[in-house]
Amino acid sequence: MAEKALGKVIGGSGPSGASRTGGAPSLGAKLAKFRELGLLLFIVLLSAAVQLRNPSFLTLENINDLVTNTAILSILAVGMMLVIVTRGIDLSIGATLALSGMISALAVKAVPDLHPVLTLLLGTLVGVVCGIIIGFLIAKMGVLPIIATLGLMNVFRGLTFTVSGGKWVSAHQMPESFKAIATGSVLGLNTLILIAVFIYIVFYYFINHTRTGRQIYAVGSNPESAKISGIHNDRILWLVYTIMGALSGLAGVLWVSKFASAQGDTASGYELSVIAACVLGGVSIAGGSGKISGIILGSILLGILNNALPLIDVSPFWQMAIQGSIILVAVMINALVKRGVDRNHLLRRRI
Predict the structure, then answer these.
(1) In the list 6, 86, 201, 281, which could disulfide-bond 220, CB 3.0-4.6 Å?
(2) pLDDT tens digits, 286-343
């Protein structure tokens, strides 16, 4: 009975895009699939056009660089998707990333023999603490997500400068074992890519095959109905922001390891790129809708734009304008899709 009630709260389309009530895929699921196919087609056409302008774009070396540079963005997009699905937003992830990266860098500077796994755990723990604080303010204190995360963004950024004394931790102060976290490889694949793939597999299962994953979508689809059906909305919100914090903390270690530099302004404004990847991937700002496959495509598209536009000698000013235009078009398409789904639901509703 509980599973049936949960399916009704989520409505026609759940996290996997299929009907949660056991029937055929809903119109929303079909439109979402069409949108993802369209995004994939756009990525293919864009790649072909760039390749015609610069034959070095689709070389194995450049593709490896593109995917590696997109890995951290895609990891953060997973957490941001869950946040947006619950009708929230997290503007503090760049600051959380910087804080965890700085603390991890200072730790390996003081203890060069610190095992890389322990360093990753340390950075993730810092992120978890940040996420717990944000989740408490939003879930328990009732502070609006944009206000809570905007305020704590400045707090975390200030803490980053405080713990570092306003100084940098540079490459020569970091042991090789730490820098190898992001630059090493296993079976020829960069460790960043492997970590990103592992996270996507874990969260795909979590979203689509666990009760808690379905409850996250239920809370985003209809908070009032979710609460009536027995879901603890505050616990779900707290969990979502804690997950976002954990992924931000992990990304902080990976970022500092990759660039071999920890600074107070690391990843400043990066949260906007993460939100853009989610929007491009079809995650609805209104909540209740979003898929892992979509944010993968959204992250790849942003990665291609960041990689390809300089290769074809597009001015940095035009690069920003082009990226903004593509994001705006994606938002408009999402709005049209949602409008079509809502209209279909109204037509099917019995009076």
Answers:
(1) 86
(2) 888 889 999 999 999 999 998 998 888 888 878 888 888 887 887 777 777 667 666 7
